[in-house]
Amino acid sequence: MVAEQVPRALPVSDVHFGGGTPTTIAPSDFLALMELLRHCFAFKKSATIAIEIDPRGVTPEMVETLQAAGVSRASIGVQSFDPIVQRSVNRAQSEVLTASVVETLRQHGINRINFDLLFGLPHQTVRSCVDTARTALAMRPDRLAVFGYAHVPSYMKRQRQLDERSLPDNIARAEQAAAIANTLVSAGYHQIGLDHFALPNDELALAQKAGRLRRNSLGYSADTCKTVIGLGPSAIGRLREGYVQNEIATTSYHEHVRAGRLATSKGYCLSTEDRLRAAIIERLMCDLHADIPAICAAHGFDPIPLLNSAGRLGMLAEDGIVDVEGGLIRVKQEHRFVVRAVAAAFDTYLDRTPIS
C-alpha cells in the first residue's frame, strides 16, 4: 500500500531493520520480506541494508540468510560487558559470545559492524565503562553509538524491577560518558556529533569531515536522501512536506493494515520557519557549530529576530558552554554532551523554562 503512494522511480539507498530484535523473524520470512521490498521499491545497486542484532539469539542459519538477502551492516547491542551490570538488567552476554557473532558476520561478508554501548546503567562505574569500551575495541567495530540509559519505569514496565538506588547520578553519568569517549578517541576513533564514534575511513567520519553529516530519527547518517519511509508500528517517516508516524500499538496497526488502510496515525506539515530551525539544529547536532546568518540567508530569513528570540543562548554563553560571535555559534568541545541544550534554544515548540 505504501509503494502505491511512492513514485516507482524513487531510488532506495538505505534500508534499516530496527525496533529491537528483527533477527527473531524466521530466516525464510526474512528472505520473503526482502524479496517483497525489492519488488515494491526501486533499490539502488549500492543500497545499504542494515539490521539490528541481539547476539544472544542470532543463529548461523540467520547469518547465512542475512548474507543471502544482501545485508551489509549489522548493529549489535552490547550495553555493557560487566557481569554485575548485566545481572542487574537481566542481560547475560559474554565477550566470547559477542566476538563469535562478530566473526561469523564478517565471515559471511557482513563487514560493517556497529556496537551500541550504554552508560548510566545500574551498578555501572567509570571503570566498568572503560573496561567495556576496551573489550569492544578489541573487536574493532566500524562505529560505536554510546547512549545514556533512560530510566522511565512509568513507560517501560520491565524497568520497575530495577533497584533505582543502584543507578548513577547525573555527575557519575557525565563522568562515565566522558571516560568512554576518551577511551574510544584514544584508540583512533573520530567522535561524531553527540554520541557516535567511527573509524577514520567510515562513511560517518568522511561525511563529518566534508561537512555533510546528517541526523534523523535513526541517528547520524552520511546519506543525503530527503525521504525516509517508516514501515511497522510507531515508525516515523520524513517526507518533503513534513513528518508522519504510524500507529504505535501493534494491535491497532494490524487492524488498519487488514482493513486495507495505511496505518499512519499522525503527521505534521513543516512551515518555512520549521525548515530553517531544523537546519540550524541539525548543524549544531552534527558539527557542534552553526553559522546562523548563512543558514538564514539560504532560507530567506533575517537572522537578527531569530537570534534575539533564542533567549537560552545568553545563559549558555554565560555558563561557558557556547561561544557566540557574529551569529556564529560554537559549542565548546568539553561541553559537547549538552549540545541538545544548545539546539533546544532554536526549538520553538519546547517549554522555555530556564536551564537549571
TrEMBL record:
**GO molecular-function annotation terms?**
4 iron, 4 sulfur cluster binding; coproporphyrinogen dehydrogenase activity
Any Pfam family: Radical_SAM
The record's listing under CDD domains reads:
Radical_SAM
Segments forming domain Radical SAM core: 1-187
**What biological-process terms (Gene Ontology) are attached?**
protoporphyrinogen IX biosynthetic process
Recite the UniProt keywords alphabetically: Oxidoreductase
Keyword 4Fe-4S found = no
The protein's name: Oxygen-independent coproporphyrinogen-3 oxidase
User: Cellular component terms, GO, for this chain's entry?
Assistant: cytoplasm
Q: Which SMART domains does the annotation name?
A: Elp3 (SM00729)
